[in-house]
């Protein structure tokens, strides 16, 4: 059909797309917009390409280069195949690993990606079943492949999908590889001759690693489970939900491996369902709104601990029944404190030298591990947000002789050890369950142990949330106001509530400024493509405001750290809540900026 939008550059992009795309539904979408003369929507769709963010490529499944679809997957993989051939002489012997979750189109995207690699003579270990995301970094490490791809959008809405890339060390892609793959993709936008042939299962370069990886993964987990006898005898009942995702069979194998009694399944959510039919958001981080069926199942079965994975099983949520009959849904920071304490206790029992042990957390996560490290003598390191940073740093520290015990981020992501250099909701479920059994044997609970941790190391009280904002101009205006607060560059707010709470330092990882450093330069890497400012207050509050790499959100992360002598947690909590409300009102100005609060 004739294309005449009045914009020759747009006409060319749309024409190329229609020439290349073979997906009838996507072709119809673009042709429909042309017939409606909807130039505004076409311009938005074709203005940018999907780029690698904090979790690879991720977006809504629809037509066009800024969305997830058959053609964007083909183009990204063609660029990746070309780049791998440049980087590795042995990629044609070692190959790549590819897995996929239960979302719409995940299996098809995986097969199309496989076709691009085998077209270049690169072998593919393509899983024959739905697998958890952590299986891909684990496979890269165990099979010594040169890269791995997981087709998943994790806990995003059902309309989304994604393309998560791991490099040859098993960790997620970081610069310059992400930029170089994008460059090669731009040089290989036209699909290769057989690009649309997704019948790849019987190809001689394609193998199924599922049975081998299952064996290797659970052999390692078996060595890490220390309480098999207690696990068999415990009176604890665990309820589990994969929230319509892939986790159920793998957590079942983890329970079998560690000798737990079978978990009680949330039947309405136990099978993969790309529609996520029982939840508004397929994200257990959202708390009771996503866990209501698990809470009902647990209550019917006299179960006191609930475990929940997100749909690709790389995150873990947990809730515990309290003596008053209420359920406590642990935050990611609280689970980080519990698992961090447990990993250190286990290592200590084995005679671990603190000087050679390390733990890691992202900059927006609780600093409870840092406080533990200062007390116990092991190394703590802070990284940018995202496991791609924590895992890559952990692998570097491992090469330097450190034992990586644990890493976490507040978004319920946990890495126990570094066999999987990424967050892993399956192994975390096993380790947290074993901790619960250990505590039950001592006559205590996860909630009570958390209190003990804070009594020993000092109260660490956190409050995190977000506002939705769909207008990039508004987002930019909010952050530019904060970094030009006195109408001059790098002049930031100095206090909250007219001086009641003084700010002693500011770090801006968008422009690389850190007032706490002698030269004014931030130690962590900076990125001008994202917004992130941290305010350090005199009274021990750290508050970070940042944009999301995958969602239209302005997020804030706050933590007030008190000394061990300040045991009144409620008072610390009250101070934090007052400060956070002031921070939102004075810095984000949600009414003035028409921000939408986080849904209840």
UniProtKB/TrEMBL annotation:
It holds the Pfam family PGM_PMM_III. GO terms for molecular function: magnesium ion binding; phosphopentomutase activity. InterPro entries: A-D-PHexomutase_a/b/a-I, A-D-PHexomutase_a/b/a-I/II/III, A-D-PHexomutase_a/b/a-II, A-D-PHexomutase_a/b/a-III, A-D-PHexomutase_C_sf, A-D-PHexomutase_CS, Alpha-D-phosphohexomutase_SF. GO terms for biological process: glucose metabolic process; purine ribonucleoside salvage. It is found in: Cytoplasm. It comes from the Eukaryota. Gene3D superfamilies: Alpha-D-Glucose-1,6-Bisphosphate, subunit A, domain 3. Its main location: cytoplasm. The keyword Hydrolase does not apply. Keywords: Carbohydrate metabolism, Cytoplasm, Glucose metabolism, Isomerase, Magnesium, Metal-binding, Phosphoprotein. Residues 50-184, 218-319, 332-457 form the Alpha-D-phosphohexomutase alpha/beta/alpha domain. Its cofactor is Mg(2+). One of its GO terms (cellular component) is cytoplasm. Belongs to the phosphohexose mutase family. This is Phosphoglucomutase-2. It comes from Daphnia sinensis.
């Amino acid at each position: 059909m004739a294309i005449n939008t009045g914009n020759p550059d747009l006409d060319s992009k749309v024409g190329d797309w229609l020439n290349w795309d073979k997906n009838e539904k996507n072709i119809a979408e673009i042709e429909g917009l042309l017939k409606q003369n909807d130039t505004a929507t076409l311009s938005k769709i074709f203005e940018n390409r999907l780029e690698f963010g904090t979790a690879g490529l991720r977006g809504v499944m629809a037509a066009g280069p800024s969305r997830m679809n058959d053609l964007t997957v083909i183009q990204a993989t063609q660029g990746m195949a070309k780049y791998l051939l440049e980087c590795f002489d042995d990629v044609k012997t070692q190959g790549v690993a590819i897995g996929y979750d239960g979302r719409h189109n995940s299996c098809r995207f995986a097969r199309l990606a496989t076709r691009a690699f085998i077209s270049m003579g690169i072998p593919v270990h393509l899983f024959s079943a739905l697998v958890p995301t952590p299986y891909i970094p684990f496979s890269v490490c165990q099979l010594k492949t040169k890269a791995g791809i997981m087709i998943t959008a994790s806990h995003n809405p059902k309309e989304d999908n994604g393309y998560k890339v791991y490099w040859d060390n098993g960790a997620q892609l970081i610069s310059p590889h992400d930029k170089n793959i994008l460059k090669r993709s731009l040089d290989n936008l036209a699909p290769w001759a057989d690009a649309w042939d997704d019948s790849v299962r019987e190809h001689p370069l394609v193998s199924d690693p599922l049975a081998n990886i299952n064996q290797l993964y659970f052999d390692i987990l078996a060595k890490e489970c220390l309480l098999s006898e207690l696990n068999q005898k415990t009176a604890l009942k665990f309820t589990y939900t994969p929230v319509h995702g892939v986790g159920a069979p793998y957590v079942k194998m983890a329970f079998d491996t560690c000798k737990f009694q079978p978990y009680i399944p949330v039947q309405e959510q136990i099978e993969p369902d790309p529609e996520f039919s029982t939840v508004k958001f397929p994200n257990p981080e959202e708390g009771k709104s996503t866990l209501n069926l698990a809470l009902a199942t647990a209550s019917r079965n006299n179960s006191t601990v609930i475990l929940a994975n997100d749909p690709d099983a790389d995150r873990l949520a947990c809730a515990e029944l309290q003596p008053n009959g209420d359920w406590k849904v642990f935050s990611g920071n609280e689970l980080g404190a519990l698992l961090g304490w447990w990993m250190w206790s286990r290592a200590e029992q084995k005679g671990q030298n603190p000087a050679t042990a390390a733990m890691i957390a992202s900059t927006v996560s609780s600093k409870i591990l840092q406080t533990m490290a200062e007390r116990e003598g092991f190394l703590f390191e802070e990284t940018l947000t995202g496991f791609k940073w924590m895992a890559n740093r952990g692998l570097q520290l491992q090469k330097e002789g450190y034992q990586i015990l644990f890493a976490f981020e507040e978004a319920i992501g946990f890495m126990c050890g570094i066999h999987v250099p990424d967050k892993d909701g399956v192994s975390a479920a096993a380790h947290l369950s074993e901790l619960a059994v250990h505590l039950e044997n001592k006559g205590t609970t996860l909630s009570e142990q958390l209190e003990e941790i804070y009594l020993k190391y000092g109260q660490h009280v956190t409050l995190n949330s977000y506002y939705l904002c769909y207008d990039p101009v508004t987002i930019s205006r909010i952050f530019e106001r904060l970094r030009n607060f006195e109408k001059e560059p790098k002049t930031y707010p100095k206090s909250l509530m007219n001086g009641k709470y003084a700010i002693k330092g500011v770090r801006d990882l968008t422009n690389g400024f850190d007032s706490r450093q002698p030269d004014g330069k931030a130690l962590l890497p900076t990125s001008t493509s994202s917004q992130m400012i941290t305010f350090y207050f005199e009274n021990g509050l750290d508050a970070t405001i940042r944009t999301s790499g995958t969602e239209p959100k302005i997020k804030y992360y706050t933590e007030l750290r008190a000394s061990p002598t300040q045991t009144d947690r409620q008072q610390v909590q009250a101070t934090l809540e007052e400060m956070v409300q002031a921070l939102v009102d004075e810095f984000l100005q949600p009414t003035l900026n028409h921000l939408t609060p986080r849904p209840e």
